[in-house]
Design goal:
By secondary structure, the chain is α/β, with parallel strands linked by helices. The chain contains 6 helices and 5 strands; from the N terminus they run αββββαβαααα. The protein has a domain of 165 residues: Protein-Tyrosine Phosphatase, Chain A, CATH 3.90.190.10. The structure holds zinc ion. Zinc ion binds next to loops.
Length: 240
C-alpha cells in the first residue's frame, strides 16, 4: 500500500495538514501530539529581580508568563497581541520590537530608548513582561542590557542566567554585542547557530561551550584541536 500511496501522492500536491500554528500550553493528555504540548522551560521562569527592588517577568511573548502585566514587550513576530494594541481601547501597553531570532537589534538607538523607557516603567511600579519564543536569546539580551543600564553590572549576563534562566543569551553574536555596547564581560554562548564559527573567529577568545550543554555538531568549532572536553570552562557562567 505504501508504494501505491507514494505513487498516487506524487501526482498530487494536496496537503491535508493545516499550517503549523503555535499551540496554547495545556497539560498533556492522551496521545495527541504530546510533544507539541510539552511543557517548556519558559513556563517555569521566575520573576526576575533585575535590580534591587525592581522585578520584571520574561518568557514567551506568544504565551506570556503573567496575564496582569501593564506592559508586554515582544521581540518575535509571533508575539501575542490583543485588542489592547489599538489606541482606542484600554488595556496593557503592547510593544512589538522586532529582533531576528538568535540575533541582535538592528536599531541600537531605539533599543536603548526602549531600555530607558522600560526602566522608567519599572520604577513607576508597572508590571512588565518581555518575551520572544522561549524567553532566552532575545529576552536574555534585553534583560542583560537593561540590568547593565540599571546597575552597571558588567556580569549582567551571568546575573540573568543565575537568577532568571541559565539558557539566556544564546548566540555568540548576542554575547559579543552585549560586550561591545553594554559593557559585558565575556561569557559563553548557550546555543549555536547565528554564525557561531564566524563570530568565534572574530572574537578570537570565546571558549568552547560545555559538551552536554551544547546540542549542535560544531560545539568546538572555535578550537579545531579540542577533544570536546571542557578545558577552559569559565567558572563564572552559572553564577554564584
Ligand atoms: Zn528558560
Amino acid at each position: 500500500m505504501g508504494k501505491k500511496y507514494r505513487h498516487h501522492q506524487k501526482g498530487t500536491s494536496v496537503s491535508h495538514s493545516p499550517p503549523q500554528q503555535p499551540l496554547p500550553y495545556t497539560a498533556p493528555s492522551g496521545n495527541v501530539a504530546s510533544a507539541a504540548f510539552a511543557k517548556r522551560c519558559y513556563h517555569d521562569h521566575p520573576p526576575y529581580e533585575i535590580a534591587p527592588g525592581l522585578t520584571i517577568y520574561g518568557g514567551s511573548g506568544n504565551f506570556p508568563a503573567v496575564e496582569d502585566a501593564d506592559v508586554y514587550i515582544g521581540f518575535d513576530h509571533g508575539m501575542r497581541r490583543t485588542k489592547a494594541q489599538f489606541p482606542w481601547n484600554d488595556g496593557p501597553v503592547e510593544v512589538w520590537f522586532k529582533i531576528t531570532d538568535m540575533s541582535v537589534p538592528e536599531d541600537r538607538d531605539e533599543f536603548d530608548k526602549m531600555l530607558d523607557w522600560t526602566a522608567a516603567q519599572l520604577k513607576e511600579g508597572k508590571k512588565v513582561h518581555a518575551g520572544c519564543i522561549g524567553g532566552h536569546g532575545r529576552t536574555g539580551l534585553f534583560f542583560a542590557a537593561l540590568r547593565y543600564k540599571l546597575t552597571g553590572d558588567k556580569d549582567a549576563i551571568k546575573h540573568v542566567r543565575a537568577n532568571y534562566c541559565h539558557k539566556t543569551v544564546e548566540s555568540v553574536q548576542q554575547v559579543k554585542w552585549l560586550m561591545q555596547h553594554y559593557g559585558q564581560n565575556e561569557a559563553v554562548a548557550t546555543k549555536g547557530g547565528g554564525g557561531f564559527k564566524q563570530s568565534t573567529q572574530s572574537l578570537g577568545q570565546v571558549k568552547p561551550v560545555q559538551p552536554g550543554f551544547w546540542t549542535g555538531p560544531s560545539a568546538v568549532a572555535g578550537n579545531p584541536k579540542s577533544t570536546g572536553k571542557p578545558t577552559n570552562r569559565p567558572a563564572s557562567i552559572w553564577g554564584a
